[in-house]
Design brief:
Blueprint lengths: L1 H11 L4 H10 L7 E4 L9 H17 L2 E6 L9 H13 L8 E3 L4 H13 L3 E4 L3 H8 L16 H12 L9 E4 L14 E5 L13 E3 L1 H11 L4 E5 L6 H10 L7 E5 L2 E3 L6 H9 L14 H7 L3 H11 L6 E3 L2 H11 L4 E3 L1 E2 L2 E6 L8 E6 L9 E6 L2 E5 L19 E4 L4 E9 L5 E9 L16 E2 L2 E2 L4 E8 L21 E8 L11 E4 L3 E5 L10 E7 L9
Parallel strand pairs: 1-2, 2-3, 8-9, 10-11, 12-25, 14-20, 18-21, 23-27
Antiparallel strand pairs: 4-5, 5-6, 6-7, 13-24, 14-17, 15-16, 17-22, 18-19, 19-20, 23-24, 25-26, 26-27
The protein binds adenosine-5'-triphosphate and magnesium ion.
The site of adenosine-5'-triphosphate has 14 residues, from helix 3 and strand 8.
Amino acid sequence: MAEESKEMDELANTGNFIHNYIQQDLGENLSRLNTRFPPEPNGYLHIGHAKSICLNFGLAEYYGGKCNLRFDDTNPTKEDTEYVESIKEDVKWLGFDWGDRLYFASSYFDKFYEIAVKLIKDGKAFVCDLTPEEMKEYRGTLSTPGKNSPYRNRSVEENLDLFTRMKNGEFADGTRTLRAKIDMSSPNINMRDPVIYRIAHASHHRTGDKWCIYPMYDFAHPLEDTIEGITHSICTMEFEDHRPLYNWVVENSGLAAHPRQIEFARLGVTNTVMSKRKLRALVEKGLVDGWDDPRMPTICGLRRRGYTPEAIRAFCEKIGVSKANSRVDSSLLDYCIREDLKPKAKVVMAVLNPLKVIIDNYPEGMTEEFEIDNNPENEALGKRKVKFSREIYIEKEDFMEVPVKKFFRLAPDKEVRLKGTYFVKCVGVDKDENGNITAVHCTYDPETRSGSGFSGRKVKGTLHWVNAADCIEAEARLYDYMMLDNPDDPDGEMIMNPNSLKVSKCLVEPSIKGCEKGEKFQFMRNGYYCVDTKDSRDDALVFNRIVPLKSSFKPAK
Ligand code: ATP
Ligand code: MG
């Protein structure tokens, strides 16, 4: 194993080393490749799973092979059909198709049982009565060998009788196990007579109360792969030390095929948590708005936030596959969604922090219509009309009464362009009794009408704006990192970012009317937004900010 492992490590540094294995193993018959994505239906999928999905389905697509979707449902107390359905939806949404290859480990329970009986008959498995504490004691440590269980030498007949009675429900949970008989002195603890069946009087979401014994992962998983004719079983690094056991189970099962297990590094992302256990804890403590809270790294959370399957797939492509565990900077995912939406999303004007602008020389009661490109990078998205009149709103931060150096936006006596319309110049401000600015007064120059070919002078700043008379008030949800820190220990405690969600009112141009849930827009000069699928209503729109236009935040180390 040491040799094989070393060879794998070397290959791990040569791009996607998994390709090398597949090519070596299948030679001319690359389309024989059969991978699988094997989620346990005990929670919602996250972006780490997306990496595994893209890898397994992606390899199958690349070589013209197949990828199965298999639910690894061998742990009845934690699993549920709710999760089965959400997982199917998420895999489909990511753009992958398992065709007619949807499988459940629980469909193989009879087969697993049969193979366990074969192992007993072959003298390779025994029923053990040690308590969990005793078993731990007998197991030994990394530096000391284990001790044989006193039940290890039971006769085949006695083992068969006890195992049958375990299956028939005669014994209480935890009183007996079936163990593989391998080697208690193996340097690899996984090989020290591992438990392969346990007693659990629990109802299973698919098999009901038919079984009260359930196979352990290390026994079931290799058999699931072998039964389905999987050629390459791709899993995460923590299973590397389980590979000898995987091979032992396959080789002693009496089944013909022999899948090859290949490990790769789990994906971690900065300032978020990844394991289902921790994500569930956030949901159960009510710290987030369910599994699909837009801050969550779950596929359903990312979807609700507004990330696209294209962006997630591009992200998985860019991070590559290696054997070194690491945390990828979440700004890479932000980059991928910006790249995807840049040519696709309609660019509209919205003001989050409104400041009223009154154009003193613009006739009262007059309204003009201007045509604006829906996306300057993509003509195919066409144009739309926006109305302009005497009172508009701009962003508060686009005005400074005493401008700092290089401030090219609006300031007293300074001129800017209002997107798609005219040049305006600030001629005064209104203040309340506390000295706060309540409105800015401008004059406009009719000569500078957009599209008129005016070339008299230039201005450095172009501001977005909305028309006071017909803009729509909506809610903007601004997200930041979910977690504050990135402990070195992947299981280390993390504290939730108290500023991970800020809710703000916003004023949006009326062309947004009739937008669909899940539709994505660029709010000009601000960021990409998605109409929230859960809380948005036609008369009370809610927009999730997917990402700011430019990355202003620096990820913590
Ligand atoms: P979690 O710890 O989040 O519950 P898991 O590994 O227990 O993850 P499974 O449902 O058993 O989740 O995983 C299905 C597949 O997805 C497995 O092949 C697993 O290796 C892979 N996977 C899970 N998390 C990641 C990750 N962070 N990066 C890459 N692959 C992952
Ligand atoms: Mg798990």
